[in-house]
Amino acid sequence: MNELISSTVTILQNELYKAIYETLIMLAISFSLSLTCGTVLGFVLYLTTNGHSVKSKIVNKVTSALVNFIRSIPFIILVVFTLPFTFFLVGTKIGPIAASVPLAITATVFLARLVEIALAEVDKGVLEAAYACGASESLIIRRVLLVEAAPAILRGITVTFISLIGFSAMAGMVGGGGIGNLAVQYGYYRYETGIMIFTIVFLVIIVQIAQHVGDFLAKKLSH
Amino acid sequence: MIKFDSVNVVFERKNEQFTAVDNVSLQIDQGNFYGIVGPSGAGKSTLVRTVNLLQRPTSGNVFVNGQNVTSYKDKELRDLRLGIGMIFQHFNLIKNASIFSNVALALRASNTPENEIKNRVYELLELVGLKDKADVFPNLLSGGQKQRVAIARALANKPKILLCDEATSALDPDNTKEVIATLKSIKENYPLTVLFITHQMEVAKTLFDEVAVMEKGRVVEQGSCYDIFAHPQSQAAKNLIKCSIKGVIPEEILAHEKDLYLITYKEECAYESVISYISRQFNLDISIIAGNIEYIQKKPLGRLLISLKSSDEQSKAKALAFIKEKAFVHEFNGEI
Predict the structure, then answer these.
(1) Among B69, B126, B164, B195, which is least packed by CB within 10 angstroms?
(2) CB contact under 8 A, B105 and A133
(3) Domain that holds residue B180
(4) Residue A111 has pLDDT above 70, yes or no
């Protein structure tokens, strides 16, 4: 027992800071990118859904097909699949920054659908009243859609963030590093059960905190 | 001024055509409090929504202040809507925004400078008596208060026209009274043309100058509110009024009594004692089942439901003929 603990502590002393740093890099890049791109893409999907013009119908079909295409690829395959693109973008195929590329892509399309659903839930009557006021499309997006859908969008963002933590562990396996990589390299391949348990507890705590913060903010915005 | 010229609205669902508004032509004059009444599904809402083009007519034209607006788009359409306020059955307030922000939305729609918005919002909330609720969110307000916020929002850009789509139908009687009082006081102080849709005859009675009755997409009757209530011509109007009378009279009486007549006094005779006169003159037994007087457009409208009992058919006919000079008489065997 003592041996197990001391080996776990040694490994953690050597590896933990680096792993946390790498996970933070992956999450920071992919989360901030997916937050902006996913929200915009979600709005595009929603706003073109009921569009009457040919242009909006085409945009909707293409965007929707693209989102479905990416969503249907298992993440681990997507990582491999996007390698050339990643190399083109960041000049390397390994490390946390490279891993952020597929992470950002997968989180973007995930969040896009959640944002689309959140917007579709907004009461049509409220939108109608805004149109009847003579409000422009952009005013309605900023002052009505975004305000009414904010709690649901925030919950979507929370779910996306938590999925990203899970995906980032997977990205670790293919050279991204991070907490997940720690679990796989030591806990799985080298039978270091202590490391395995430590990473699980660590990730559980992070996910719990993320969920609580998300719920708290969503509650603040809904009335 | 609003004018509908042969307006049709046809919906298409699964290759089936449904005519919601069927060839409606109507004119609503400036400053009028105009009501459109009818059972639900008559196409009232669809018609009123063509005024600000929330619903585009399938054919026909809509004129607002003399302009044919039917083909308005984008900027032109937004400008039109700035000049037409609208309130809805379910208030349609932004529930995650404060009362202040809800009213401010309409001002932002008209590009009111930010520094003027604050004063104007408080002015509007004062008008509907909700100045102290500016920072509250809609879920903390009663239905009547929500509708008053909606009225403040609708009037934000000083429109000439106010559309009300079943504005009191989701409210209980107290809240209905509250909203009606607000509308009335606003109407007295502002040169507004109001087009109000409702199926509630109680509301119609208290508010409207003129009324159009709709049924199955068509306007079947129109005229002054008093005339429609005193002497309805169309079956649709009769049905609507019957509904409001029927509530007062127990079913049992309608089932047992025979020879029932509903007498609606003509305006100038509302105060005459017709009944006791014919009872003496024609030697008839008259029992009075129900009666009331109400004021519509500030004019008295008296109604009596009587049963004429007589074995002498001739004197009965004479009596009826006499009453008909003074009042509108309808045989009331459950029907008007």
Answers:
(1) B126
(2) yes
(3) 2-235
(4) yes
